[in-house]
């Protein structure tokens, strides 16, 4: 019973770590925290970066390590690259948090050719209008595109499908 409680406590500590580039969502919301297991008294956290060149990968891994150490665990972080992360792994709660923060969540599944190579209909996270236009393929980070709403005239980031 104690081991199960420690396992849950370790998961909760790691899962609460916010993404450094999009602090409204946690590593759990993004689906990049794959697993936290206790192995011989060590909390082993498995993390999948959003993409291989993500500049926040080390910061995320270090933040998870700190959170687990502060919760009283010895820690080992394992980077898991296969299968690769996709935006399909973002939880429904994470999508809502992105929208509330002013970032349009991905609207297509990651396997969609249209999502990767075509334009998608992106609703404005502020007013909900579908009358939007892409301004730039890149927004505040490489994983987001910059859009503008024609209805409310507000610019916003769109979390691209990967």
Automatic annotation (TrEMBL):
<feature type="domain" description="MIP18 family-like">
    <location>
        <begin position="12"/>
        <end position="71"/>
    </location>
</feature>
<dbReference type="Pfam" id="PF01883">
    <property type="entry name" value="FeS_assembly_P"/>
</dbReference>
<feature type="domain" description="PaaD zinc beta ribbon">
    <location>
        <begin position="112"/>
        <end position="160"/>
    </location>
</feature>
<protein>
    <submittedName>
        <fullName>Phenylacetate-CoA oxygenase subunit PaaJ</fullName>
    </submittedName>
</protein>
<dbReference type="InterPro" id="IPR011883">
    <property type="entry name" value="PaaD-like"/>
</dbReference>
<dbReference type="Pfam" id="PF23451">
    <property type="entry name" value="Zn_ribbon_PaaD"/>
</dbReference>
<dbReference type="InterPro" id="IPR002744">
    <property type="entry name" value="MIP18-like"/>
</dbReference>
<dbReference type="InterPro" id="IPR052339">
    <property type="entry name" value="Fe-S_Maturation_MIP18"/>
</dbReference>
<dbReference type="InterPro" id="IPR034904">
    <property type="entry name" value="FSCA_dom_sf"/>
</dbReference>
<dbReference type="InterPro" id="IPR056572">
    <property type="entry name" value="Zn_ribbon_PaaD"/>
</dbReference>
